[in-house]
């Protein structure tokens, strides 16, 4: 954990919580991987898509960037909203296929690699992500967000209530709030959360 201190250490702790929760959730699946997952995905594809949060952070740590194109996790998520939905769907299907005959074991191994790689990384290092160059500490909360959100999707597919660790939930909810604020929708959010308006259908962070 050398180099991880202050706010970045809190983000690391939240990421590790989210990883542990996702691994534990996937470990509860007892067959039925072809049951409905989310949208066009079956459960296998949904779990695979969520596990990309582990695969991508491990891969990106080996891809140094020359420039800092994005300075925050919120900016990264905002850019992710422009990706072709069919591209995302196909990535999920391929990620599901990659899980092989032991999806839970595959996810657990990917999780162990991701945590070890992040702990050893320099949080100030610039890495190349799909949306541009970012510092590791800025990118990591996006992985926590994906694990929390898609963990909730997996839980729903299994008929379970989401069990999200507090630090991971704070990180994910805080990031979602920041994205909404940067969209200029803070007033809509405030009115909704104070019971003064219904949630606008277009007030979303990701789909």
From TrEMBL:
Domain Mycothiol-dependent maleylpyruvate isomerase metal-binding: 17-155
Keywords: Isomerase
Keyword NAD among record annotations: no
InterPro entries referenced in this protein's UniProt entry, alphabetically: DinB/YfiT-like, MDMPI_metal-binding
Superkingdom to which the source organism belongs: Bacteria
Isomerase as UniProt keyword: yes
Protein name (record): Maleylpyruvate isomerase N-terminal domain-containing protein
Organism from which the protein derives: Microlunatus spumicola
Lineage: Bacteria, Bacillati, Actinomycetota, Actinomycetes, Propionibacteriales
